[in-house]
Amino acid sequence: MKEPARWVPAAALTMLLSTGPGWAAIPVLNSDYSAPHVLYLDFDGHYEPASNYRCPDGRPAGWTVDFMTTDVSGQITADQVRAIWQAVAEDFAPFRVNVTTDPRYEPDPDSPESPKALRVAIGPSSLDSLGLAPAICGESPLEDPPYLDPNISNVAVVHLDPYAIKPRDTAKKISHEAGHVYGLAHHTAAPAALEDWIMAPLAPATRYIWRVGTNEQKRLQNDVAHLASLLGLRADELQPSPLRTTGPSVSGGAEVLYAHGTLTDRDDFDDFSFASARAGLFEFKVSPGIWASPQSPMPGAEPNAKYQLVIKDASGRQTIVCPSQQTFTMSVTTQPTLGLDCLNHPPALSVGVTYRLRVYHGGPNRLPGNIGRYTVTVRDVTPRPELPMPMPRSIGR
What is the end-to-end Cα distance of the chain in Å, rounded? Predict the structure, then answer.
């Protein structure tokens, strides 16, 4: 899934500091301005009163006790906030939700114009030392997501110790508790396998992916499919899409062709068109992770998945390069070769011919829910002859 043209402008990922109280160190970050849903990361403290709502059977629902989180905006660094945001944004990359720290998108339940929003209050908490989501009335959150119940506040809480911040662990807790509000239950499996899943029960996740499997209510739970039905999926673009260009650098370096994208499931792939008007040696590379800026070829951070890159012909049917990998170099010549021995006789591309660069999931861990973003770049790395040094001129008397 390549990012649509309406994707966040570069300024949105720049650290814009708000002048409001409690926001001295919180960068203003948005993952998708146009999304109809908002996942608001709240670092400046929040108080949530207990709900008086009762289920039809008399059980309390929503938040059954008052709770509050402490303002940590003066104790957490901008880089830590950005790292947390990046990881959560990648978890929710395929869906139509704006993961944001922007106070303009802070949930306002009293405003009819406010987008559908979920607040995750992050900081030292008067509740659980990990995180909590509101209680529900139904037997299964899949059928009765708290997010859709007007009687339940769309608020989750994640405990954060400002003196021992681990951005990736914090992000996993945020995605986990948000998942509960969106209707996802805990998955069940052997303890070792639980380390891989966002919705594992209190497990120290290491790869943070969504999952298809049996949940604690003994129901089949497809995390990605459920979130897609609730939040919507970002539309994919037509294949193939053109690469962007940086143009020649100020220092005289060659231009860089690049694109950003998101793979939504293990079978998804993206194609980009490439052609060179001149001969040379080119480096092709795919880097996992959320990019530093949508207007920059700089690779990102916090990767969820591994990717492979392969070159195909213009139709997308014939593979030109083997084996597929994350980085390789190829020659573009006026006399192309399609060698069968990629190690000893690598193929070469033809000047003026259009090819497809295909990005897809690679490696052994092609599991459902292994989603995330990437940056693909093409650089001209042709060795340039060094200009001879000018001979020193003698100065006569």
Answer: 72
